[in-house]
């Protein structure tokens, strides 16, 4: 099942894609794709609906119908760094002995096709296609073997990053990761049954039609069940938390010479079975 949120920023309604990829309005069934609506029993209830009987929404998603972030009211936006050995190498860093964990502020969250704004003073705004994991059932000290029962679904994330703010300005990476618009999420929240093998999903990213990232979740160092279990030793996870699991090689910082985003450029990125995003780059 592909769940989504559609409408103007801040006023999104819940929806679901039907068999013909048209949007059906879920407002009469759930208030939002958020919080307790992501619990396993709630998702199961949605999966039991006759989708074709729900009201049809006018417009083609991602064309004349705006799609918002596929999860509302996200509590924590947790990211994993250096989770692909070849990306760690292009960043001039070693694969860490334990996952690198950092945050994106929730004010960074935007829809999959909303503009990405280069922050004031930035010279080094960069891209990162990543597999997103959305928590359905919360918990602490989750066993790795049980971790997938805590997952509501998967989505595409662009972990937009300002490298000078992140690496050259002291302190944690967070300054360069959480600027406004640096967290496009969606278009769809795809339930695990529809994704199947999440350890073998192709992922890609292009800027103005030039392909920079071409990877697969196959080469992740720390896999999804381990990451959920690992994170839950340091914090309780809650319904609607989002984990961005790291990027494969091909970021701008890793090009020779490095390449960074400029106003007017367009990023397109996607992951097998999870859909694609398109963002115009503008200036704050
Ligand atoms: N270098 C860097 O910022 N990396 C990451 O965010 C990552 O590995 O996903």
Automatic annotation (TrEMBL):
Family: Belongs to the FAH family.
UniProt cross-references to InterPro entries, sorted A to Z: FAH (IPR051121), Fumarylacetoacetase-like_C (IPR011234), Fumarylacetoacetase_C_sf (IPR036663)
Keywords: Lyase, Metal-binding
Domain Fumarylacetoacetase-like C-terminal residue range list: 76-281
Superkingdom of origin: Bacteria
UniProt keyword annotation of Metal-binding present: yes
GO molecular function: isomerase activity; metal ion binding; ureidoglycolate lyase activity
Name of protein: Ureidoglycolate lyase
Pfam assignment, any one: FAA_hydrolase
Database matches in SUPFAM superfamilies: FAH (SSF56529)
GO biological process: carboxylic acid metabolic process
Lineage start: Bacteria, Pseudomonadati, Pseudomonadota, Alphaproteobacteria, Hyphomicrobiales
């Amino acid at each position: 099942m592909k769940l989504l949120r559609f409408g103007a920023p801040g006023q999104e309604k819940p929806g679901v894609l039907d068999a013909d990829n048209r949007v059906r309005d879920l407002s009469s069934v759930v208030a939002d794709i958020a919080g307790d609506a992501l619990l396993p029993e709630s998702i199961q209830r949605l999966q039991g609906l006759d989708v074709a009987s729900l009201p049809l929404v006018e417009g083609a998603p991602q064309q004349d119908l705006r799609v918002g972030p596929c999860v509302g009211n996200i509590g924590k936006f947790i990211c994993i760094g250096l989770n692909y050995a070849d990306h760690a190498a292009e960043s001039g860093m070693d694969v860490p002995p334990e996952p690198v964990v950092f945050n994106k502020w929730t004010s960074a969250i935007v829809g999959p096709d909303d503009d990405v704004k280069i922050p004031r003073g930035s010279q080094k705004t960069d891209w990162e296609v990543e597999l997103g994991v959305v928590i359905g059932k919360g918990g602490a000290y989750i066993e790795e073997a049980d971790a997938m029962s805590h997952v509501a679904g998967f989505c595409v994330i662009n972990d937009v990053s300002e490298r000078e703010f992140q690496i050259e300005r002291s302190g944690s990476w967070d300054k360069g990761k959480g600027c406004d618009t640096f967290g496009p999420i969606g278009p769809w929240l795809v339930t695990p049954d529809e994704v199947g093998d999440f350890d073998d999903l192709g992922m890609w990213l292009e800027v103005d039609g030039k392909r920079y990232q071409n990877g697969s979740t196959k080469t992740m160092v720390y896999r999804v069940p381990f990451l959920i279990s690992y994170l839950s030793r340091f914090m309780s996870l809650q319904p609607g938390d989002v984990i961005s699991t790291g990027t494969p090689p091909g970021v701008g910082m890793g090009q020779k010479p490095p390449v960074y985003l400029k106003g007017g450029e367009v990023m397109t990125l996607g992951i097998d079975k999870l859909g694609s995003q398109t963002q115009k780059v503008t200036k704050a």
